[in-house]
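Supplementary Note 3. Input sequence used for the single-chain structure prediction.
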Amino acid sequence: MIDTNFDFQTEVNGRDSDRYSPTLQEYHRILWSKPLPSGQMFTLTKISNNRLYHKSELGEFILSSDRAVPTFSTWKRLEHIIAQIPREQIDKFVHLSDSIGGIVIWPSNQINKMATINAERGFNRKIVDRLDLTIECIRRFYLGESSPLDALLTRYKDFFDIFGGFKEYIEFFLLQDAVSDDYTSVNIAVPFNNFASSPIPNDVGEYVKYMEATSHFIKMRNLRIKGS
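The predicted structure, written as discrete structure tokens, is reproduced below.
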């Protein structure tokens, strides 16, 4: 039922597929309406603006889609880097990042009029939308350790609590290829310096390594999604 090669942009006429693609919304509903580690069902229903909704004794959650893997291919400051890589290679990376394997869901309700997870991931200069760095923040959150997204994740503690722990969260959303076999570390692409420096590639070498690591993760997650 899930086409991991489907181009969600084909049905939104240039608009944001996270917000407007009915196929993407349906894929999320199918994939993530399933039992939680506790055995309780996490049933999702479709509501307006391509969002999903769950309400039970577990809590009430409004969730939305997020194309979670940035390619940086249209960033002005990276023009000199992108120009040195074959256009076909960049186009393949962009297309892959738009497949369901590169897309996740987050709680999308604002709390105290503060930024949502989707928004803060993009605005935070130590994360700049990178999924691997977001997952590292989630790992630290479950351990009670600090990270650049600590306050943000704490606001959505009720959501993360329903999974019970980091391993269970990773397995629920089929993110196993983003972490080590024992779930104790995250497979973080370069550049990364424990959040001390910018996570944006500085040269062609770094960009290619980031692209290769990220592409591998998305391809492997697409295989998991196909088999789920």
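The chain has a mean pLDDT of 96. The first helix runs from residue 17 to 20.
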